[in-house]
TrEMBL record:
Gene Ontology annotations for the cellular component aspect, listed alphabetically: plasma membrane
GO BP annotations listed: osmosensory signaling via phosphorelay pathway; regulation of DNA-templated transcription
Presence of keyword Protease: no
Histidine kinase domain location: 1-153
Cellular localization per UniProt: Cell membrane
UniProt keyword annotations, A-Z: ATP-binding, Cell membrane, Kinase, Membrane, Nucleotide-binding, Phosphoprotein, Transferase, Transmembrane, Transmembrane helix, Two-component regulatory system
Name of the protein this chain belongs to: histidine kinase
GO molecular function: ATP binding; phosphorelay response regulator activity; phosphorelay sensor kinase activity; protein kinase activator activity
Amino acid sequence: SWTSVGEMLDEVADRFSFQLQQRRIDIAIEVADEIGEVLLDRDKIDQVLDNLVSNAIKYTGDGGQITVSARLSDSETVEVAVKDNGIGIPKKDLDRIFERFYRVDKARSRNMGGTGLGLSIAREIIKAHGGAIVLESEYNHGTKVTFTLPYVREEETA
Ligand code: ATP
Ligand code: MG
């Protein structure tokens, strides 16, 4: 359905407002003005955003910073990024992070809940949407997950 990218990102922040306040984590939403409305499967993209923001919260210390941003990487592609300044992921785990059930060392994940499926589901959803998803991380510094979506505007479907 037609979705305002700005509203969609504001709403994901709203869904986590209680946890964010409890953990004193600040969330910044930055959306390039020119994006406006995009055609996408809102439920599926919300599922991706919910997982990425919940990961960012789980793996970021109290008082941390999360930034969710959207821009046009070119005239046909929207790029959405969820960035945190949390505990990061060791280099040796990066290759496997999108595998089903893969979680970085059980000790740190034990208390966090979750099954290790979120990122693999996110990748399937983004692929089915004709986009791509990548994760960059620096251990002890933070993580950034970026996904793309085809930029389908109203004029193009009229
Ligand atoms: P689920 O999403 O099924 O509830 P999960 O969050 O553990 O469980 P994924 O979302 O697939 O599973 O993430 C896989 C693993 O990648 C996590 O267990 C965690 O170790 C690591 N990870 C994911 N996002 C981050 C992040 N933002 N910072 C640090 N580590 C992360
Ligand atoms: Mg997850």
